[in-house]
Design brief:
5 domains; single chain; five-stranded mixed beta sheet; 30% helix; rod-shaped
């Protein structure tokens, strides 16, 4: 007797309300005796399974003696009892469904890699060798397939506590251990049967993409990004150009901060006086009046932070040129003066030596001829000695002048290099 035949029989019996009581009681007794031998008992009438997992639908069935089982199969959402489709012949199920039972009593199956499309009512049906020996087990198994979703606030402030929840659309039938991931790295210390992740005293390092999963399951939830906001820290000023600041050039001061969300409001101060706003403070034509200490303040909705002060020293170009020129002139004057002093001393020394080499007439008492020859010889020696001294003195003076010229050229070259370096720094 099939389950559908039983339903029709009850309807027929009830329709004979005008029939004598005895036949009615007899029919009911026949039904009670015959239907008690047919049945399907399901271990779980409702199953909530995780996406991409394997589901076991366990059951056993009974039928009267004298019947021989010819076919057993599972079906879903049957339109009528006679035309119930066999899932093992369905292309969507044939590769994923495995019958674990037998043709005696066990009717368990395994359905692998389930998706949300597999959420249906499933029934076990068997047929026998007799026309009235067909049965579909009711009420069947209600299968719901769920995924996992991380529920978390979009933004949390540093220092607060936050709770993340791994949610499913139904209560999972099999208890499992939840696993949490941050930026694709497992949080090994967060493994428990609770589907919540509690972060206490959140730090900026806790920001990232969070996912959840079940242990021994391949499915992982989509990522949810947790933002951790914090006030400005490590605010500092960068100066461009970084070289010596020359009067007339331009300079940019930028305020940098590592806050989240990034700071959008900045204030600039020279000493203790407010001088401007914006992340970049520019001075187009800098002068000595701009020399001093500068600092900035970054401001967010979560706090503010001052930077350390930086000092700007502005140098005047004209002052540099005058300074270098004065140095060159003074150096040249010192060298010339030293040369003149040396020449003067040299000349005095030569005159003294020439005076010593001349004869004293009041001492010499020789004859006129001898005196004349002696004087002549002395004059010749003095002349040659004086000529040699004049030549040596001129050569030495020329050499000193060349050295002086070389020194002047070196000083001028140094001046040009300094000016060129200042121009490069101002770019």
């Amino acid at each position: 007797m099939s389950y559908c035949t039983f339903v029709v029989g009850v309807a027929v019996v009830i329709s004979f309300r005008m029939a004598p009581p005895l036949p009615l009681i007899f029919l009911l007794m026949i039904h009670r005796v015959s239907s008690s031998d047919w049945g399907v008992n399901y271990s779980h009438l409702y199953i909530c399974a995780l996406k991409n997992s394997s589901v076991i639908m366990s059951c056993n069935y009974t039928y009267p003696t004298g019947y021989k089982i010819e076919k057993v199969f599972w079906t879903k959402n049957p339109v009528n009892c006679e035309n119930s489709p066999d899932l093992s012949e369905d292309p969507e199920y044939s590769q994923r469904l495995q019958y674990l039972g037998d043709k005696q009593q066990n009717c368990t199956i395994r359905l692998s890699h389930v998706t949300q499309k597999d959420s249906h009512m499933y029934y076990f049906r068997f047929t026998t060798d007799k026309p009235d020996g067909k049965w579909t087990g009711k009420p069947g198994v209600n299968l719901t397939v769920t995924d996992l979703q991380v529920e978390a606030p979009e933004r949390v402030t540093e220092g607060q506590n936050v709770s993340l929840t791994c949610k499913s659309s139904c209560a999972l039938t099999d208890r499992a251990t939840f696993i949490w991931y941050r930026n694709s790295q497992p949080l090994t210390e967060r493994r428990d049967r609770n589907n919540q992740l509690l972060l206490q005293s959140v730090r900026r390092e806790d920001a990232g993409r969070y996912r959840c999963a079940l242990q021994e399951h391949t499915y992982i939830s989509p990522a949810v990004y947790l933002s951790v906001t914090y006030p400005p820290k490590h605010t500092f000023v960068a100066v461009s150009p970084c070289c010596e600041l020359v009067e007339g050039n331009s300079v940019n001061l930028s305020c940098n901060s590592d806050s989240y969300p990034p700071a959008l409001n900045f204030s600039w101060f020279k000493g203790g006086t407010f001088v401007g706003s914006g992340r970049i403070y520019s001075i187009s034509k800098i002068s000595s009046n701009h020399s001093g200490e500068y600092k900035c303040k970054s401001i967010t909705e979560h706090g503010e932070k001052y930077s350390d002060a930086v000092t700007l020293n502005v140098t005047c170009v004209g002052c540099l040129v005058k300074l270098y020129t004065t140095g060159v002139v003074c150096g040249a004057a010192v060298v010339i003066m030293m040369v003149l002093i040396w020449v003067k001393k040299r000349k005095d020394t030569q005159e003294s030596q020439m005076n010593l080499s001349r004869p004293h007439h009041n001492i010499c008492q020789a004859s006129d001829v001898k005196v004349t020859e002696s004087v002549y010889e002395n004059e010749m020696v003095s002349y040659c000695y004086g000529y040699c001294l004049d030549f040596t003195e001129g050569f030495t003076l020329l050499l000193l002048l060349l050295l002086l010229l070389l020194l002047l050229l070196l000083l001028l070259l140094l001046l040009l290099l300094l000016l060129l370096l200042q121009q490069i720094c101002s770019l």
